[in-house]
Each structure stands twice: as C-alpha cells, then as structure tokens.
Amino acid sequence: MPKLTVHDAKGKKVGTYTIEPADLAPRINKQLLHDAVVMYQANRRQGSHLTKSRGFVSGSTKKMYRQKGTGNARAGQRSSGIRRGGGHIHKIHNRDYSYSLPRKALQLATRMAVASKIRDDELTVIDKLEFAEPKTRDMVGILDRLGCSGESLLISTAGHDVNVYKSARNIARVSVSPANDLNALSVLSARRLLVTTEVLDQLKEKAGLKEKAELKEKAGPKREAGPKKKAGPKSKAGAPGDKKKAKAKQ
Q: 128 CB contacts (<8 Å, ≥6 apart)?
C-alpha cells in the first residue's frame, strides 16, 4: 500500500501515513466528478440578469406617424423591438440556476476528488497545524518549508480553526476549509491539498461507514422466523370408502 510522508511544521519528516485511493473510493468516476462540479458552479450563479421588453422601455406609446401617405413603412410606437433603443423581443428574465444531486453521490464525489489527489501525488500531509494567535508570516513560512507556496492550495483541518483561517486568508490563492465542508469543486479547484492526519482519519472512517451501510442495504432486512403453527385436531371422519359401504348396506 502507498505511504504518504508526514511532515511537521518545520518541514521535517516525522513519519508515514498508509492510505491508497481505494480506501476512499473504489474507483474514480470522471463523469460523477464533472456532474458535481457543474452543480456547484451552477449554484453559485446569481441569476439576476434582466433585460427590458417593449412594455418596460420608457417613452411615449404614441404612433410615430400616420399609417398611410408618408411613403415610409408602417410603424407603431418607438419602443418596438425592431427599432434602435426599443425593448428586447425575447426578454431575458431572472432565474434560479440551482439544483441538487443525490446526497450520497456528492459525498462519493468528494472522496473521489481526494483520492485523485492521492493518486496524482498532489496531497501533502502535516502532523498538526496549530497557531497560538493569527500570524500570516508563520503560515507563509510553513508553506515554504512544505513546498506548497507559489501555487493554488487548499488547507483542510479537522475542525473550524479560527487562527488557521485568519493566518491564511490574506495569502493569494490559498483557502482554508474544515474537513466537513470539503466538496469536489473546492478540492479539484486547488492545485495542491494540505491536510492533517486527523482529516485523513475522518475521510477513511466515513468511507468505511458508507461501505458498511451500502452492504446492509444490498443484503436487505433479516426476516425473523415466526412461531410455528400448531397442528389442528385430527378429523373423526372415516375414509371416503366407508360412506359407499354404508349406502350399499342400506
């Protein structure tokens, strides 16, 4: 199994972390990743575009000139869509572009995105990332020692750490996200991913729980054996031949 090098804040190797992409996702489905990224981008759209139809253009609605006798083509009001300064014939309305994919599909897409970072050697592991107070200078030094400076980077921590967030928010092309807020778009948008060992533990645990739940769903609920039915009393009626014999005697 592949082993990832674990560094400390000084950039020194302090251990290894054993993980492979299959621990997070059985395979990397590019179509699912594409669908998830398009959904997140669509949900970001404001959708406030609006143009004016002839009814919203300011100006007089009076007929420009009489119908006949001028030699010109017939014309109505100035706000007509075929005239300069008039309204749009096919007006653009406000609309909501947001939609959602199934929750399990999005969770799987997030794990696939992290697995792709492991496969492409674009993931850096640090033992812990803590600051006593917000210090951008200290964060820049850590990123330089880890070789993560000069390119887009996503830093993921086990929980919401205010000091880590404030230390990195003023660095260009660097963003911070807790492990619970990771998604396929944020992971794939950054060139590199910097995580702590706790984040990898959480991702592996979630992936294991999801696999167990899926296996249970496939197996279905267990059927409990009901109580056995008691045999009823035997009928006292004789054999079918006895009735015929009785009739013959009569």
A: 8, 9, 196, 197, 198
**Within a domain: residue 75?**
no
CATH number at residue 205: 3.40.1370.10
Q: Which domain holds residue 139?
A: 3-26+102-215
pLDDT 10s digits, 15-27: 999 998 999 999 9
Counted domains in the chain: 1
Each residue's pLDDT tens digit, 79-120: 999 999 999 999 999 999 999 999 999 999 999 999 999 999
Hey, what are 58's tokens? 């300011």
- Count of CB atoms situated within 10 Å of the CB of 153: 22
Stated pTM of the model:
0.74
- CA-to-CA separations, 134 to 64, 81, 167, in angstroms, rounded: 68, 58, 5
Does residue 61 belong to any structural domain of this protein?
no
State both tokens at 92.
């653009």
